[in-house]
Write a structure and sequence with these properties.
heterodimer; A: 201 residues; alpha/beta; Rossmann fold; B: 183 residues; six-stranded parallel sheet; 6 strands; globular; binds thiamine diphosphate; binds magnesium ion
């Protein structure tokens, strides 16, 4: 068995690869490092980096994917954030939005709060949980050569996708997005709906 | 008592559940997030029977708050249906509606506030309005059947016109509480 490829991935390189040529994809990022990661790759109106609502990211993705069925919606979040919203995996699996993908950047730690260990550090298997919930499409990404297939699977739009990528538990320099949530919401709505967004009744 | 439910559904003669459904339609509500409550049972049936509505049964009510944000980001109007105990599950998530200025209308059937049978419903039922208001939600109560539709209408309007979480609390008095022959 090859071992050279099984080092944990660099989370920003992973984000950069997954978001390359993203088209009109909409991205929701869980609070903390995933929000800094998508911002480091490039802040834009089609990004919603979260500042709070721990456990909400996947369900925000569900509401958005139902509202915008022709766009790919990608949720990028941390293992800690996903563990707080495990029930949403059942909710999403039942609803089966074809255009929603969830990517957990699993560093097996709560990075933002000082690198305390999460349950995944002790073997809790998020992919198995998602499969058990009913996700037909799941991926476990542990090496660089699996990143391109991951990117393809995200864009495929063939039913909800749940992927876990094992990433390095390094604390990277903060790259902060705008902090005003009203602005973050309004800019994405305008990007999706045009100027009409601000006159919706 | 075996085949009976502890929670009370609206009487067949009650018109307010259908009035709420009509309001959801007239306001163009497309996403309905819920954890079931007997008080909402007829409204839930009406929504499920409507192909133009996306009904999502949640594992916990806080998922619904997150879903309403996602819906609005994509231009959909949504509503969250729950009973008063579910409000307690939403507390921190309500931050999202304040932070992002997101319309988040909630329609809450009250338990533990008028002739309740189940002691477990009283603590959260007593705190429901306080908790919502503490998190910045505009709360209006409807304690008579004829008040339900105008209050829900106002709740939906204020959510989408002024960009914030809003809630109608439908008093237990409107539904009546089960007495199990002890009245
Ligand atoms: C409800 C709630 N509980 C706790 C926190 C504190 N908190 C902020 S980020 C975070 C850890 C996130 O860990 P993870 O999702 O794995 O992201 P990482 O930084 O490891 O990539 C925690 C516990 C919070 N913001 N909200
Ligand atoms: Mg983590």
């Amino acid at each position: 068995m090859a071992t050279a490829n099984t080092r944990a991935l660099d989370r920003r390189e992973l984000c950069r690869a997954v978001l390359a040529d993203r088209g009109d994809m909409l991205v929701v990022a869980g609070l903390g490092a995933p929000a800094w990661d998508i911002t480091a790759v490039g802040d834009c109106p089609e990004n919603l980096p979260l500042w709070g609502g721990m456990g909400a990211a996947a369900m925000i993705g569900l509401g958005l994917s139902i509202a915008q069925p022709r766009r790919t919606v990608l949720v990028i979040t941390g293992d800690g954030e996903m563990l707080m919203g495990l029930g949403s995996l059942a909710t999403i699996a039942v609803k089966r939005p074809p255009n929603l993908a969830i990517l957990v950047q699993d560093n097996e730690h709560y990075g933002e709060t000082g690198m305390q260990e999460t349950a995944t550090r002790y073997g809790v298997d998020l992919v198995a949980i998602a499969r058990g919930a009913g996700f037909a499409r799941t991926m476990l990404v542990t090496s660089a050569d699996q990143v391109a297939p991951l990117r393809e699977a995200i864009h495929a739009g063939a039913g909800p996708l749940f992927a876990v990528a094992k990433v390095d538990a390094a604390s990277l320099p903060l790259v902060l997005p705008p902090r005003d949530g009203a602005y973050l919401q309004a800019r994405m709505r305008e990007a999706v709906l045009g100027p009409e967004a601000h006159h919706q009744l | 008592m075996q085949a009976e439910q502890l929670d009370k559904a609206p009487d067949d003669a009650a018109t307010w559940p259908d009035q709420i459904y009509d309001l959801l339609k007239s306001h163009g509500i497309r996403q309905v997030a819920l954890v079931p409550d007997a008080g909402h049972s007829r409204l839930i049936r009406r929504c499920l029977a409507d192909d133009s509505m996306q009904v999502v049964t949640l594992t916990t009510e806080e998922e619904g708050i997150a879903m309403l944000l996602g819906a609005w980001l994509g231009g959909d109007k949504g509503v969250l249906l729950m009973q008063s105990s579910g409000v307690g599950n939403c507390i921190n998530m309500l931050s999202l509606g304040i932070l992002h200025r997101t319309p988040m209308p909630m329609i809450v059937t009250m338990r533990g506030d008028f002739g309740e049978f189940n002691p477990a419903q009283v603590p959260m039922g007593s705190a429901t309005q306080t908790v919502l208001e503490a998190m910045g939600t505009i709360v209006r109560r409807a304690d008579r059947p004829e008040d339900v539709a105008p209050t829900v209408n106002a709740t939906i309007r204020m959510a989408f016109n002024t960009f914030r979480p809003t809630a109608t609390l439908i008093g237990q008095r409107v539904l009546g509480a089960k007495t199990f022959g002890k009245d």
